[in-house]
Amino acid sequence: MTSRQIAFIDENNCIGCAICIDACPFDAIIGAQNFSHRINFNECPGCKICIKKCPTDCIKMIKINQNKNDILEKVKYNFSRKELRIKNTQKIYTESINNQLSKLSRN
Ligand code: SF4
Ligand code: SF4
What we know:
This protein has one domain (3-106): Alpha-Beta Plaits, CATH 3.30.70. By secondary structure, the chain is an alpha+beta fold. The N and C termini lie far apart (64 Å). It has a two-stranded antiparallel ribbon. A two-stranded antiparallel ribbon has the order 2-3. It contains three helices and four strands; from the N terminus they run E-H-E-E-H-E-H. One iron/sulfur cluster (SF4) is lined by residues 7, 23-24, 26, 28-29, 39, 44-50.
């Protein structure tokens, strides 16, 4: 077992603003507007980005114990998923711009 850090939300002080969801690059935060949020610890590699964004300071880092191979697999999976999301976003932007340019050229 290896210890690693993940984010943890104190749900009693979470106001459900959802700012952390937008800030998390790994889609590791679950919640809906006006309801308390939670961290999916399996998806959180502990980047700490959400901590500074929270207006009520209710996110902190905690340590959990996990099998070393599980951690490595999860980190690889998280980064490959992030790259895929960036590629897909770029593809959608490019298609949208091309559609707009094509409409303009027809007018
Ligand atoms: S520490 Fe990073 S990955 Fe984990 S919940 Fe916060 S922003 Fe997301
Ligand atoms: S930023 Fe903080 S208060 Fe807002 S939803 Fe996330 S954990 Fe809750």
